[in-house]
Design a protein that fits this description.
A hairpin with a 6-residue loop joins strand 19 and strand 20. A nine-stranded mixed β-sheet has the order 1-2-3-13-4-14-18-16-17, with helices on both faces. It has 553 residues and is α/β, with parallel strands linked by helices. It contains twelve helices and 20 strands.
Length: 553
């Protein structure tokens, strides 16, 4: 049976996962959790200079990079400004495999076979067949041009209702070989449809409400014959009216949006989607009085300058299993980690800490982390440097003085700091148990998983593994082990990238799950509690555990 105290956290996780349909929304909703616990936005440069804004012991802060990477941290209340201050870091990522709109979302044949489709690109390594026949919608970030034309702002958009679908091919049109292969061409078989082509829908004539009692056959035959004669004429009239309306609408749209034709980006977008996104932004404006000049005015699709939009499955996250022991959701890899890490940080009281607890959730892990906001960027390294510098300086001190002190203390700070690289792990699939190494098979609801690979696909070492097992012992969190079979390829994550770029001691671990990179994944609800408890214990006890190590460097 699942303990009752697990359910409230699992329900909060479901709400977060459902709302976080892309990296931008994942960061925005994580910030809501942080702000409810007193975190406030911090700038790496003050308003009057290029130096970091001053930090206070006991303070709780966050900032974002490109709105899709989050850095959140709390400063220990016992931190001394002139001493070495180590960091306890948790790293995760905000992105998941999905379909992203191509730079030109309008297909080459806009109304192919009477349907409007969208040009999309496969992002990451997804199990793309699991996206077939799902109710999909669109979310992401939109760049909006202000009415003055001299300013561009970012807006989040999320269509709630299903507007897209990638339909599978019916069994009757497939050969036996094709059915067995279940093979998709990612360019031609994954193009979603979003609407019927304009003026291809044949409107049926209005009829009277059917009576519950059946009339005699003769009147019905006479009525049917008469209707058949009239329908042809009605169809001609309806088509003529639709064509006239289409011509009028085209003229009106051209007249209203003359400037639109000069913008090459807008010319490449599917007009129906462009209009729908504009309508959604207008609706958001009516519910938000704080947008100022960047409000979208009626019918002004020309104020949309660019976007970064993704498809997502509208089915919400849910608890499953006979005893609610499972969590079914999209994007568990790796938003389950982001939720647990942010929750643990938000609820931790740093007043007795002499260190800094930091959570960083990177974008672009699923495509290699090589970007301005990925784990291969300077984001974490700069966070460590700027936060340390902000602590070393006071209102009266000069920047050169704090930089000189930072230069002397930074190497020691790195040696005393630590990073948990947390990404979802592979649980044993009961139907494919032979895919796991026989004595390294993690199971659902049985604790976090340490991931090890001697070829450095994971950053785990004997020392970092020991430290996490010791934290598990102190917090009562069970720890499992995973190593890939010698005859299987091994995945990787942000751990090796972080350790190589920053020099931090790092371990790779995660919560076990099934169906990784599917449109719909599953994990154990109890493992959410295990993760939050381990992260809380890490923030509270790691410096003490670390001091027990007597290792010669």
């Amino acid at each position: 049976m699942i303990p009752k105290h697990v359910i409230p956290l699992a329900e909060k996780a479901c709400a977060y996962l459902t709302a976080s349909t892309d990296p931008y929304h994942a960061v925005a909703h994580a910030i809501q959790i942080l702000e409810q616990q007193g975190f406030r936005k911090w700038s790496m440069s003050s308003s009057s200079s290029s130096t970091p804004a001053i930090l206070q012991p006991g303070g709780k802060y966050y900032y974002t990079v490109q709105q899709s990477t989050l850095v959140a941290f709390s400063v220990g209340g016992q931190v001394e400004r002139t001493a070495v201050t180590p960091f306890c870091v948790i790293g995760g990522h905000t992105d998941s495999p999905n379909f992203r709109l191509k730079p030109r979302s309008q297909c080459a044949t806009p109304h192919k076979n009477g349907l409007v489709q969208l040009g999309v690109e496969c992002y990451g390594g997804g199990l793309w067949h699991t996206w077939l026949d799902r109710d999909l919608s669109v979310s992401g970030q939109v760049l909006v041009r202000h009415s003055t034309g001299d300013k561009i702002s970012r807006r989040l958009v999320q269509l709630k209702q299903p507007v897209a679908r990638i339909s599978s091919l019916c069994i009757h049109l497939q050969t036996a070989t094709e059915r067995e292969a279940l093979k998709l061409n990612k360019e031609t078989h994954t193009v979603p449809m979003i609407a019927s082509a304009p003026h291809t829908v044949v409107t049926p004539p209005e009829t009277t409400t059917w009576s519950s009692s059946l009339p005699s056959a003769a009147p019905l035959l006479e009525q049917a014959l008469e209707e058949q004669i009239n329908v042809v004429e009605e169809k001609k009239e309806v088509r003529s009216q639709d064509q006239n309306k289409h011509d009028d609408d085209t003229k009106a749209t051209t007249k209203t949006n003359e400037k639109e034709e000069t913008d090459p980006w807008r010319k490449g977008q599917e007009p129906l989607l462009l209009q729908r996104i504009a309508e959604e932004l207008q609706k958001n404006d009516k519910n938000d009085d704080n947008n100022g000049d960047d409000n979208i005015h009626d019918n002004e699709v020309i104020t949309i300058a660019d976007w970064d939009l993704s498809l997502y499955d509208v089915q919400p996250a849910a608890l499953g299993g006979l005893h609610s022991e499972f969590l079914y959701s999209a994007r568990l890899d790796n938003l389950a980690t982001v939720f647990c890490a942010v929750t643990a940080l938000a609820e931790h009281d740093p007043c007795h800490d002499a260190h800094i607890n930091l959570v960083v959730a990177f974008d672009h892990e699923e495509v290699g982390s090589v970007s301005a906001q990925g784990a291969g960027s300077p984001v974490l390294e700069q966070a460590l440097q700027h936060i340390s510098q902000a602590l070393l300086q006071s209102q009266e001190e000069e920047t050169l003085s704090s930089l000189s002190l930072l230069s002397s203390l930074y190497p020691s700070m790195i040696r005393q700091s630590f990073c948990l690289s947390v990404d979802q792990a592979h649980a044993v699939h009961p139907n494919y148990a032979s895919k796991h190494e026989s004595v390294h098979g993690p199971t659902l609801n049985s604790g976090l998983v340490i991931k090890t690979n001697s070829n450095q696909r994971y950053a785990t070492s004997p020392v970092t593994g020991f430290l996490v097992r010791e934290l598990g012992r102190l917090t009562g969190v069970p720890i499992q082990e995973f190593v890939v079979r010698n005859d299987c390829p091994c995945g990787s994550t942000i751990g090796p990238t972080i350790s190589a770029r920053t020099g931090l001691r790092t371990i790779d671990l995660g919560m076990p799950q099934l169906s990784m990179h599917s449109c719909r994944e599953v994990m154990g609800t109890v493992d959410l509690i295990h993760a939050v408890n381990l992260f809380r214990g890490y923030f509270q006890h790691f410096p003490t555990v670390d001091r027990r190590l007597q290792l010669d460097e």
